Amino acid sequence: MDSQILGLLAQGIGETFYMVVVSTVAAYVIGIPLGVLLYVTAEDGILPNKVIYAIFSFVINVVRSVPFLILVVAILPFTRKVVGTTIGSTATIVPLVVAAAPFVARMVESSLKEVDAGVIEAAKAMGSTNWQIIRKVLIPEARPSLLIGMTISFATILGYSAMAGFVGGGGLGAIAVNYGYYRYQVDVMLITVAILVLIVQIFQEGGMRLVDKIDRRKKL
Amino acid sequence: MFYLENVSKIFPTTDGKVSAVQQVNLEIRDGEIFGIIGFSGAGKSTLVRCLNLLERPTEGRVLFGDLDLTKASDKELREARRSIGMIFQQFNLLSQRNVLDNICYPLEIAGVDKKAARERAKELLDVVDLADKTYAYPSQLSGGQKQRVAIARALATNPKVLLCDEATSALDPLTTRNILTLLQDINKKMGVTIVIITHEMRVVEQICDRVAVMSSGVVEEVGTVQEIFENPKSETGKKLVIPDASEGIPVPTKDFIRIVFDGRSSYEPVLSQLILHTGLELNILGARTEDINGTAYGQMLIEAPSDRASLQAIRDFLLAKDIPSELVSMQEV
After folding, report:
1. What is the pLDDT of residue B82?
2. What is the DSSP letter of A133?
3. CB of B40 less than 8 A from some CB of A
4. Which of A139, A209, B109, B161 is the most exposed place for a label (fewest CB within 10 A)?
5. Nearest beta carbon to residue A119 from set B82, B92, B163
6. What is the extent of the structural domain holding A30?
7. Contact assessment for residue B165 and residue B89, using Cβ atoms and an 8 Å cutoff
8. Are residues B277 and B149 in the same domain?
């Protein structure tokens, strides 16, 4: 394998990290408030609202149902408007965020649902406002579960980012497609896949260790 | 402290409406320890949640001092809740905060600065005798210790009243006794009114001044612990005072006489005197005595003789000795 390919792979790794990290952060910036909104307005939430819950739940389900590649193509005009281009890593971030934010919202909702209802009741009995319950009880109590969700989201977004290689996205996915699929360079394709596997492993393992470290529920 | 006027709570369910609390009128006085007793499903927990409006009554008024909580604004209600502490069967501590920060939580949300909050929390840790666990997390504590933290947390904002929802039901008998003693101390030393929900008569016996007996959402009778214990008038009251019945152990299957000891006599001489006097062979079905507030209370169940004359002889003897007793027919219970 020549140095040109090695340089290409290094660049691909850099681009993949750039896409996935920026997208994960952005997906959480949108997904956390959305997840909290879903939790709060659900039937057994702290401020039940059937209409708001139904609308957001429906929109989230619709976006999540659209296959990622179709989503990328469908929102091309939107992507162009936001970042000025439709190819390359930066352009991939837009559909990645659009696809991941609803997914993250559901992950956040399910993490918040795990918080013991008794603890929330106690917080209410002490005179907490709803905002205090969300900020000081729900999110801190759900923190370990939220972090586990984040490692899952990261791996999912990484998978999407590789798919984006088919439609002009950058990163390792693009290398795998361009060299492995179009040029039959199986070795390059296998190496990119191996690198992707490695990245998922590292983040999953690191995330789990971090959760173990911060979770106060079982530490003796 | 609290006045409840015609309080009802109806829950809509898929099988129609369920009345958890029906037309309850109740007064809880300043400084007393008030018990609400009943079997599971009686509506006790719903009733206590109507006191701080965790459950909003469907009907009626809840007066806390002069404030009608059912008409209070959200802000007024939150402020009132700072004067109404609450502890729970499952403790409900914040699992990701250590003991100190758990106790600081109510102060934090009330806007007390961090340093003052920590000082107050440390004071309270001394009150509940847990200073050595200041930086421990709830998962590292026993049930009794968790409840002590919960009590400290509930007291942080200097409440006037402490609501206890089955606070000892998840604890073993010895720990229960210790927690009840702590609650009694808090009532005596700090003047905090205490409302205790329980299904165990012995909890009521140990610390309550007055008690309300509840069944199917209705308060069947209210009285001093002594009144209810010696002479329960309601069906539920009668069942609850029989030893072990409140702990789910089956009551005797035959008719029996329930003899109540109210501290004026111990039960042994009475029994031997009864046997000598009547010349009857007596079968003891169960007995329990307890030291309550410094007085020996207890009761004994003896099998009722089948012939009327013997039965009358026993009743006459007890009446002459001024010992409260009642004949309990199993058809009735």
Report:
1. 93
2. I
3. no
4. A209
5. B92
6. 3-214
7. yes
8. no
